[in-house]
Write a structure and sequence with these properties.
single chain; alpha/beta; Rossmann fold; two-stranded antiparallel ribbon; 10 helices; 7 strands
């Protein structure tokens, strides 16, 4: 019943096509007098397994926001950066209960790309996602990337974070990155293992693997 509700609009399209021969965007020539049922069934199945909710997780400095922007440029899916949802201008935190409600609201939308960790809400996003991408890069690489970013964007706003949250050199933040594998990695691996049977999950250990995959991404979604 949940599956029927989620894809109700597509099921209506199928019913209309089979009964009235209504043309669809993918084939404007299709009509009642020339129904290509096998082709339409393939199209229907493709839409059925389409990935409309994409969660991107991983340590700070792994490139989650960069990847999210790349994917958003390839597909017509709304993009939400968790940093923009959590931080208010001037690096003021959103109260945790309020933030959880915000994430729940976003995750309930039919289509989205969400990048970020925030362990308090990760279960909400993983449960709702169709596709999960885990950037499981080494802490050395993530730390190097974060420090490099701090110098390159120092005292500047970033597109993936709230305005008036200037990039800064933050030792506590770097310690957080260094401890991420010990603190959070195993919890993420464990959570993903419970979802692998009914979610499309990608785990990348190195940027080269990710680069090759993103080049093929339009064929995967």
């Amino acid at each position: 019943m949940l599956l029927i509700f989620r894809y109700r609009s597509l099921i209506v399209q199928v019913w209309q096509f089979l009964n009235y021969g209504i043309s669809l965007d993918w084939n404007a020539e299709v009509g009642r007098s020339n129904r290509s049922y096998p082709i339409y069934i393939i199209y229907f199945l493709f839409r059925l397994i389409n990935m409309d909710r994409i969660a991107i997780i991983g340590s700070a400095g792994s490139g989650k926001s960069t990847l999210a922007i790349q994917i958003a440029k390839l597909v017509d899916i709304p993009l939400f950066h968790l940093d923009r949802l959590f931080w208010k201008p001037g690096w003021v935190e959103t109260p945790k209960p309020e933030f959880s409600l915000i994430v729940e609201e976003v995750a309930s939308k039919p289509r989205w790309i969400i990048d970020g960790n925030y362990s308090r809400t990760i279960d909400i996003r993983l449960k709702a996602a169709d596709m999960i991408i885990f950037l499981d890069f080494s802490k050395f690489l993530c730390l190097f990337t974060a420090i490099k970013r701090s110098f390159q964007n120092r005292n500047k706003d970033r597109p993936d974070i709230t305005e008036e949250c200037k990039e800064k050199f933050d030792m506590e933040f770097y310690k957080w990155i260094w401890n991420f594998p010990k603190r959070s990695r195993q919890k993420i691996i464990s959570a993903l293992s419970k979802l692998e049977d009914h979610k499309k999950i990608y785990v990348f250990k190195h940027p080269k693997e990710l680069k090759k995959w993103i080049e093929e991404f339009p064929n995967l979604i």
